[in-house]
Structure prediction request, 789 residues.
Amino acid sequence: MKKTLLSLLVACSTSAMAAQSYEFGVTLQGYDGSATSSVSYGGQIARHALHNSLKKVAGKGDQAQMNTYLSSTEAGRVILDPVSKDGFPVKQSKIDELSSGKDLLSSAYDGVITGWPGNPTGQELLEQLVDAAAKTKAGYDPVNGYDYVQLISKFAMGAVFYNKAVNHYLEEKLEADQHPNNEAYKPGTAYTGKEHVWDEAFGYFGAPANGLSLSAKEVVQITKQNPEVFAKADANGDGVVDLKSEMAFAHAYYAASVDASAGTNYFHTIMQAFVDGRQLISDAKGKALTDAQRTELKEYAAVIATAWQQVIAEAAFKYAGSVYADLEKIAVIEEAHGDVSKAYRNYVKHWGELKGFALALEAAGRDLGNAQAGLDRLIGFSPVLFGDAQVVALDGKGGFVQANAGPMQEYKLNMIKVQNLLAQSFALEAKLNDKTAGMSDVLEQLNAAAQSAEND
Amino acid sequence: MLESYLTWLMEELATAGSSLLDLRKRVSLWYLLSAVGFAFVVFYWRYGKHGWQRLLPYVSPKVWLSRSSRTDVGLWLCNRLLLALLIPKTLTHALWISGLYYYWQKQGLTPLGLGWSTTWVMVLFTFCYVIADDFSRFFTHWCLHKVPMLWAFHQVHHSALVLTPFTVFRTHPVEGVLFFMRSLCVQSVMVSVFLVLFPNQVSLWQIYGVLVTTFLFNVLGANLRHSMVVLSYGPRIEKWLISPAQHQIHHSTDVAHYDRNFGVLLAIWDRLFKTWLPGNDQQTLKFGTGRAIDRTGVIGHWWIPMMDCADVIRHGVAKRCRNLKKRLTIREP
Ligand SMILES: [Zn+2]
Ligand SMILES: [Zn+2]
Prediction:
């Protein structure tokens, strides 16, 4: 009910203001420079390019290269993804063209991650994963069941982008004493404090500036650099896709991907709240925001944070379903005495995606209640492996310790429980790859219908 | 610490209070009023323009302000607070149902694949769920009367000297836990089996977010069952549905009425278990257990049952010892 009201409110306010693209003029009072736009989030896009490139090199297992894109801030780094393709040219090819001196690691969550052995901080975990990936062939560790490409990528998106946006910019940075709107963000900038704070959060989401005029399917195809959507992606028609404003990255892609498959509306909900919040700041015309304005802004921020969290949980839900399906396939192949190596490879890959997204949920300092302990316990520190073993701890030298975890096929039940837990805890709507046969909907009804201890 | 405790206390009490407007709760204002409307129509039809006078006990201050009635409300609020601590809030059901759902499949249960529409599955599931739920309520209630250790707790409900709609909450916390477990069992089994047989099609038939039968039951005067208004459905309908008058017989002090009419919705279980009695608009009954507990407050209603239960156990043990000794002494020579 609350949500429908809010989305109704969001819908009404946009028709009134009609900002359809994330483009806003200069409002800073006393500004005498030449800039006409106050929008700036090049540093965030640089980190998206770092993440995409890190994912590419993680599949090669070269530690020095991985560190180049994880923790180094050196000049001259080449963007490995996205790069120009036939029919889909990209404007930038160097990280420095987006923003110089940026790295991923220092922006990552520095709180504790309970879902990984040894309770590392988010930053430590990213380093550990890269170190471990370097010791494997192509980022794949069949012995412990780890696909480091997936683990690194899915966790990094949460620990950096989602964390910075919802835990930092859309949280503490919205307070009155932080980067006020009646001052430049920094001396000399064309944008106010609050304008830039909001832009940085938007940049981390990773949506193209014209996202509201794109369908979810088109957003997905832009990330995939499909030449058929090039004209749509190249919003300013200059013949190249500008990574700074015309590309779709990270969670914006996942939001659109869930929407495209399930008909939900996560991408546009988040996009609309970003545009409306930014419009509100623009409308203040360079004056400090009133308490009422900041309250309204925080409501937009809450819409964004909730939907963003749901997108990550939807992704985890989907991959829990994939893990279940992989276990079924493995059982069938084993029964027929076939070769399970390919099915096992998929199982490990999907588990890495599930675990990466589940860890991402923990990586933004938001209280998950019972869900966090539940997810940690049900998913465990690794998939259940052949021989019914599972990683349970780290030894003194940082190696993984395995122990018996019960029959491998029983891990399917954990996946059902994971899906229920996610659906209930985060009020999921898409629920792709549902292996619970629609259980959470019935449970919701039953809770409402007759959860009473009364008798006659 | 104290502050968070007080917040929690206030929140729990506030949700209890919000039951009064919640269509999912029997004591919501709407159902309290609809019961009057329903009884008014029936009495007018049966007794003409003076029929409404039979409704007077429903609003009698003497009933509502009596000690027994105040204890109802006291137990309602105090039990809520206690059960909020005893019964884990969410997810328990989900874990159980997940486990069973997985278990049935492992046992070889598969989707029926009958191609039924979701509406038909909804109707079938609702029907089966209501039957199972109603029977489990009947059977639990039957056990509460027949098993001395359980009766020790259920006597709380029967110690009411007057009946008001809030008497429905007059239970011992232990009974509350039992009923929680009952619903856990029924829901887990029904939902898990149906999910396997009809994947992605299972839902309940609801009106205003309330199970359709619960809604009708409440609209049509469920609150009269615990009230001093005597309304019988007539012998023909009472063979199938338990009327307010029949439930009042269940509360009667008359020995002839002991252990009768355990049912909630359906009367068929009582007929099957030979515990069925018809009601009558003209019946005049006395309520209570006739024991000291009738005249105690919340503390007494929490404490006495536990003492009684302990007694039952002690007697049981003593009896067993005696029997054992007897057998041993018989064998000795
Ligand atoms: Zn009763
Ligand atoms: Zn009884």
User: Anything to note?
Assistant: Chain A has two domains: 2-13+38-102+125-136+149-306, 309-455.
